[in-house]
Design brief:
The protein has 216 residues and is mostly helical. The chain has one domain (28-207). The chain contains nine helices and no strands. Helix 3 (39-70) packs across helix 7 and helix 4 (75-94) packs antiparallel against helix 9. The longest helix is centred in the last third of the chain and has 39 residues, at 170-208. The protein is globular and about 60 Å long.
Length: 216
């Protein structure tokens, strides 16, 4: 069974999802939203956010394709749309800022007035936004074996643990890396995402218009 797994592709999927979740890039927003919270509240928010991200992505892994089929959306069309969405996120990351595709400034202001910010806006749309959900669905569609989905699910829980740890030590990371360090890491992950986004669009176009992939 393990011989049938494409470990290279699975690792690429893991890295891609980590890049678009970008927990380091979420640190400034997280710190600003939890500045007036007690230590116990901050701990609760961190673990609840990580758990919510895991639930959102696991649902995307196992039910995403079914939702597309229900609405009659073809995978080539979804690849192209996902590529465009992920590219928008990547471009925003190049500028070291959050994409409007993930969350808007107005949403952040409204969320600051809420008592519970773990699920909205931290888990969704700040971390596991439309771009992350689309990326997961596209990656899963390329898998041939059900246990590859299972391994990706385990990978999602690992990512959730990384998110929890990042949020728990957000203050220390912010001081250690500084704004410049966080922005540099964000730009590097944005570059990876941009390449993946273009690849998604190229594959989607090739599937939708097979004739374009052949020389005339």
């Amino acid at each position: 069974m393990l011989d049938l797994i494409n470990w290279t592709e699975l690792f690429k999927d893991f890295v891609g999802i980590f890049a678009i979740l970008n927990p380091l890039g979420a640190i400034p927003v997280y710190l600003s939203m939890t500045a007036n919270k007690s230590e116990s509240e901050v701990k609760r928010i961190a673990i609840k956010t990580a758990m919510a991200v895991a639930v959102i992505l696991v649902i995307s892994i196992w039910a995403g394709s079914t939702v597309l089929q229900f609405f009659g959306i073809t995978m080539p069309a979804f690849r192209i749309a996902s590529g465009l969405l992920v590219l928008l996120v990547a471009i925003s990351m190049f500028h070291a800022k959050s994409s409007g595709a993930s969350h808007t400034h107005q949403e952040t202001l409204e969320a600051a007035q809420k008592d519970d910010i773990a699920i909205v806006p931290l888990a969704i749309p700040l971390l596991a936004g439309p771009g992350a959900i689309s990326l997961v669905i596209v990656n899963v569609n390329q898998m041939d074996q059900w246990f590859e989905k299972l391994l990706l699910t385990l990978g999602v829980f690992v990512l959730a643990a990384i998110i929890w740890l990042t949020l728990r030590i957000a203050n220390s990371l912010g001081q250690l890396m500084g704004t410049a360090g966080i922005n540099t890491a964000t730009r590097i992950m944005g570059l990876l995402l941009a390449a993946m986004a273009v690849q998604f669009m190229m594959l989607g176009i090739a599937e939708a218009f097979p004739g374009l992939s052949y020389k005339t």
